[in-house]
Amino acid sequence: MNPVSDLGALGFVLFWGLTALAAGVFLFRGYQLFRLVSLGRRSEKFGQVIKRALTALGHVIIQKCQFKNITREDRGGVGHLFIVWGFLFFVTYYFFFIVIASGFGIPDVMEHNKIYGYYTWVMDFVAPFIVIGTVWGIIRRYIVKPARLKGQQTAEALIILITVLIHPITHVGKIATQIAAGHPPAGLGILTPPLSTAVSHLYTNAATIAKWHSFWFWSHWVFVLIVLGMIAYTRYLHMIAGALNDLLRRTPPKGTPERIDLNDPSSFGVDRVDNFAWKQLLDSVACVVCGYCQEICPATFTGKKLNPRLVIRDIKTNMLKNGPFITKKQAPVLPLIGENQEGSVPMEAIWACTTCGGCMEVCPVYIEHVWEIIDMRRHLVQMQAKFPDELLNLFENTEQRSNPWGIAPADRAKWASGIETKPFEAGKTEYLFYVGCAGAFDARNRHISLAIARILDAGGISWGILGKDELCCGDSLRRLGNEYVFDRIAKDNIKMFQDRGVKKIITECPHCYHTLKNDYHQYGTDWEVIHHAEFIRGLIKEKRLKLNGNGDLGKVLFHDSCYLGRHNGIYDAPREVLARTTSHTPAEMKRRLNRSFCCGAGGGHMWMEESIGKRINHERVEEALKEDPRTICVCCPYCMTMFEDGIKDLKASEKVQVLDLAEIVARALQ
Amino acid sequence: MRKFKPEIILVGATGLGRDLAGAVATDLATGLTADCTGLDIDDRGFLLQTRPAFGGNIMATILTERTRPQMATVRPHVMSLPAKDSSHTGVVIRESPAIDEVDIAVKMLELIDDRKHGQDVDIAAAEVIVSGGRGMMSKENFKILQELADELGGVVGSSRSAVEAGWMPVERQVGQTGKTVRPKIYIACGISGAIQHLVGMQSSDVIIAINRDKQAPIFEVATYGIVGDLFKIVPAVTDRIKELRTKNEQG
Is A394 on the interface with B (CB under 8 A)? Predict the structure, then answer.
């Protein structure tokens, strides 16, 4: 029985007519979106097409997007797995057993074989999973309403979920009526599809079975086509745009904005949607509004105006609204940076980002929110000189004296005045110890520089420093959008390192680490950069340090620094060092590893006031204090400052101390 | 300038003065040394313009040998006021050149005072600042700093954490993200001296630090340091000054 050919020529006209209509709607909108995304400027080239394609396909099939977000607290992703895996079976079924079989009028060829039998049997088990996943999704979204989906109880989402639900139901109806009519899928003996067989007993009136079969077939196919049309207009689009966004994603280094051409004034930052790179516009199209980013964002969490999801939404709205005008070479009608309207990103939101990278880490479709925010900062700083007042000092000081505080460069080596250090000289010293501004000037962090120096000496390492010639790495400037000055600093540093033959660099600060390693890599450098946590782990592994444990640290709690962890994937090294040094696995906070919570100082926030909402460092310190530690271990000078300040503010200085990993190790040295 | 052809032009390095001096020097195609800390004239009639250079590590003395006039700006308060010397008999010429509106690119429409009504105190201009930090413990305790400041004719400043805690308004904040001050006397009470604070006040002439913790970094920049309980020390100092003043007035 074939509901298409049963209607004669009309059946085929109807089948292919409807299919063409849906495909037409899909392609029309797809082309429109392609045109809009193409308004973006060209950006970095990407290669390795085959590897990328296989990776992206693999990600879709294994649903990496969900697995990275399923946690004990949020199991929503499991429902998504049921639906997607189920649909992979369904889509295959549609292609072979509807489009080819019914569409070409050859169901006898396609269905009278064991493959069809087995396949429909499997589908009988797949269908309930899709129903479970979808019903679960509806209950979660409309009844449980987790924080992540706040305000997302839209009609669009409900329609999508219902259209998902209709597929397995109509499918089972179709197979059940097929069985009731006496045409069970062939050749399986006892392996008749159990669910469909059970349902088939409902159809007892032999006269109407054929009509019912026809009904289920056509309603099924019409819904498939409705979904096809909907894909390009609704959030269903994430199936395609999300996969594309994965396919076309920028290659690491993660957390590093694109290097811009400073000879091209049009690339000094973004204040018009078409100044974004096309990939950034694709990001906005790919967003599925899952809300994982807003849940992990420290700014959103503490009541700032920034919500990474809304930034992406605003870019999309802006593109849809302005796109047609820009295509016609007319001026955009909706400002990209502006207040209180959908489609404009508020200035306050742009400045609230700590560039911790949490949003990018959890985004299932690989959106790079931070890069987009930095591009808008670049415009505000470089084209409009509009930035929080307190940054003026930072910008001037760093530009003129190559440190954030404007301290005399001659004071850079003062931290080492009580110890013996060598200047770095290629051939005579192997490693450059790049101390960084905080390690050189800040009274508290100087202790960490000394601890590192002690460890290096104890490990018999040949190392030297640049002393007063050392310059700022430029991290804060770049993340605050001051690309022009960063570019000069980067070139100065690179020239000095090359002139002096620097090959291996040990850094104290994760921000220096990331900048020297990843940002400077965009300038073609490929020296080895090692953060002290990793370096110390190496020394311990090679048994070059004699550690005797230390008793007075009490319970040690570890805090992941964003630029060590999320941006560079270094999670194990500091934990291993702590375990070896203290003989105990360090205690952990609830938010840890790649889901760690920023201290509040990244992205230039070390130099900015924080007057809206709760202070980020207070939030993090409170979280730490819940674990009742005696010592909090950090690996970053910014984290050190933020934790110590937060602990003082919360009056906990009596019971908890903050130490850098290097200090803990140095204390344990024999 | 072209009328009088002066040998030397000195301008105060105020906001307006800095803008003006640079523009005039450019127009006259002559040199300009900004922010001098010392000025002198040598026997050849050259103006010796001394200012810190290379991050304050050396003092450079700059001469304008080939062009005239010789121009320099000086920041307010960097040179002490000399005693009045009536032997000099210079003449002050007031010149009011007629300025055509067409020559000015900017037109003033309205003067808007950006200070908030009444409560404003410009700590950057104060000669004496008594500053409090987290060690003040509460808003009420700033009263003792106000008393000391009143006695010294100064104002009360604050560290970032005290502003953060809501004890002081943000206009009083000294430091990286607040104001940079260089008063004659800076008294830091209960301020540990995080680098963010130090950079805002370390060029004060005299720094007096009062703190419980003798390891506090504030003592590294302090001219005089007192380790102890500020709640005993500050009132004691205030009382002593009062006492001395009364004595002076009587005597």
Answer: yes
Asked if A449 and A440 touch (Cβ cutoff 8 Å), the reply is: yes
Residue B118 pLDDT > 50, yes or no? Answer: no
Residue numbers in B near A658 (CB within 8 A): none
CB within 8 Å: B195 and A609: no
User: Does the beta-carbon distance from B176 to A410 stay under 8 Å?
Assistant: no
Q: Where does the pLDDT of residue A340 fall: very low under 50, low under 70, confident under 90, or very high at 90 and above?
A: confident
The DSSP H or E segment spanning A419 is none
Distance between CA A590 and CA A593 in Å, rounded? 10
Q: For residue range A30-69, list pLDDT tens digits in order.
A: 999 999 999 998 877 777 889 999 999 999 999 988 888 8
Interface test with A, best of B159, B161, B176 (most A CBs within 10 A): B176
Chain A hits for B195, Cβ within 8 Å: 405, 441-443
Domain ranges of chain B: 1-76, 123-250
Domain A401-541 architecture: 3-Layer(aba) Sandwich (3.40)
Nearest C-alpha neighbor of A319 from the set A343, A338, A299: A343
Q: A288, A324, A329: which is closest to A309 by C-alpha?
A: A288
Q: A401-541 with A556-668: one CATH topology?
A: yes
**A653–B contact, CB cutoff 8 A:** no
DSSP A424-459: --BTTBSEEEE-HHHHHH-HHHHHHHHHHHHHHHHT
The two three-digit tokens of residue A377, written as one number = 């900062």
Task: Kindly report which listed range (A196-205, A588-597, B185-194, B236-245) carries the lowest average pLDDT score.
Answer: A196-205
Query: Which one of 3.40.50.620, 3.30.870.10, 3.30.420.10, 3.40.50.300 gives the CATH number of domain B1-76?
Result: 3.40.50.620
Is B166 in the A-facing interface, judged by CB distances under 8 Å?
A: no
- Output the pLDDT for position B117: 47
Other C-beta atoms lying within 10 Å of the C-beta of residue B166: 8
Q: Read off the pLDDT of each residue in A258-266 and give the average, rounded to a whole number.
A: 82
Domain A556-668 CATH assignment equals 3.40.30: no
Amino acid letter for position B251: G
CATH of domain B123-250: 3.40.50.1220
* Contact residues, chain A, for B203 at CB < 8 Å: none
Confidence bin at B172 (pLDDT 50/70/90): very high
Between A237 and A254, residue with greater pLDDT: A237
Decide: A564 and A636 in contact? Cβ < 8 Å: yes
A positions 430-449 inside 8 Å of B (CB):
441-444
**Does the beta carbon of A407 lie under 8 angstroms from any beta carbon of chain B?**
yes
> B176 and A649: CB-CB below 8 Å?
no
Please say whether the beta carbons of B150 and B206 come within 8 A: no
Q: Where are the domains of chain A?
A: 5-24+68-233, 265-382, 401-541, 556-668
ipTM value = 0.78
1.10.1060, 3.40.50, 2.30.240, 2.60.40: CATH of A265-382:
1.10.1060
- Contact residues on chain B for A642, CB-CB shorter than 8 A: none
Chain B residues in contact with A641 by the CB 8 A cut-off are 194
Which residue of chain A comes nearest to B165, CA vs CA? A649
Instruction: Summarize pLDDT for A186-245 with one digit per residue, the tens.
Output: 655 666 788 988 898 888 888 899 999 999 999 999 999 999 999 999 999 999 999 999
> How many Å apart are CA B18 and CA B24, to the nearest integer?
10
Q: How far is B249 from chain A (nearest CA, A)?
A: 44
**Type of residue numbered A277:** A
Min distance B246 CA to chain A CA atoms (Å) = 41
CB neighbours of residue B91 within 10 Å: 4
Contacts with A649 from chain B: Cβ below 8 Å? 134, 161, 164-165
Contact B193 A443 (CB under 8 A): yes
Whole-number Å distance between alpha carbons of B84 and B87 = 9
